[in-house]
Amino acid sequence: MAKQKKANKIKNQKSKNIDKEAILEESLSNGNLLEQDVEDLDLELGSEDLYEKVKSLEEALLRSRADLDNAFKRNISDVEKAHKYSIEKLLIELLPVVDNLEHALTNFSNKSSKEDKEGVELTLKSFESTLDKFGIRPIYPLNEQFDPIKHEAVMTSKDLKKQDNEIENIFQRGWELHERVVRPARVSVIKN
């Protein structure tokens, strides 16, 4: 609404300036021009230039405000991501501990006590539960389709009973921090 009023004002101002310029030319040709009339016409012609400058400065101000708002939003987004993924380096260092606990479970011999095995199982479950509280989840893609973002193919094999690109075996679980893959799952993939 305000822009429409400004546009109409500019239009009226321009038509007045054109009319005054015509009057000025006519008065000059007739010799009927007073000194005060010349000053009034100069002021009115100068006000159009000032109005144009004000208009361009207002537009520049609006662009600057928009740029500042965008920079502020980008900064907030960057800070949120930094908080969300700040534990990624710690996670990368802790994943071998999880791997070692898993290996310990699979390599228990028959001579090992049941209590030892249960102790390692409980430790692993407790550790995984703690990781889950912080948005860290395992990627366990058995019988899923291969996804190069979440999986790393370390081996291929043939099996006509399964689909092409289906994951057949998992050698090492992958891990995600929220939606970001921290370590892809190491898998074997069916290639027929």
How would you characterize the overall build of this protein?
The protein is of the alpha+beta class. The chain has two domains: 2-84, no CATH class; 88-190, Head domain of nucleotide exchange factor GrpE (Nucleotide Exchange Factor Grpe, Chain A, domain 2), CATH 2.30.22. The protein is 61% helix and 16% strand. The chain has four helices and six strands, in the order ααααββββββ. The chain has helices spanning 2-30, 35-84, 88-106, 114-133, and strands at 136-139, 151-157, 167-172, 174-177, 180-183, 185-190. The strands form two sheets. A three-stranded antiparallel beta sheet has the order 1-4-5. Strand 4 (174-177) and strand 5 (180-183) form a beta hairpin. Helix 1 (2-30) packs antiparallel against helix 2 and helix 3 (88-106) runs antiparallel to helix 4 (114-133). It is elongated and about 115 Å long. The chain starts with a helix and ends with a strand. The relative contact order is 0.08. The mean pLDDT is 83.
Tell me briefly what this model is.
The protein contains four helices and six strands. By secondary structure, it is an alpha+beta fold.
Q: Let me know the largest β-sheet.
A: 3 strands, antiparallel
Mean pLDDT: 83
How would you classify the quaternary structure?
single chain
Helix content percent band: 55-70%
The CATH level-2 architecture of the largest domain is identified as Roll
Outline? elongated
Q: Strands across the major sheet, in which order? A: 1-4-5
Strand tally is: 6
What is the CA-CA span between the terminal residues? 68 Å
CATH fold type of the largest domain: Nucleotide Exchange Factor Grpe, Chain A, domain 2
Radius of gyration: 38 Å
Strand content: 15-25%
Which stretches are poorly predicted, pLDDT < 50 over at least 5 residues?
none
| Class inferred from helices and paired strands | alpha+beta
Please provide the ordered H/E string of secondary-structure elements: HHHHEEEEEE
Number of individual domains: 2
Looking at this structure, what is the CATH superfamily of the largest domain?
A: Head domain of nucleotide exchange factor GrpE
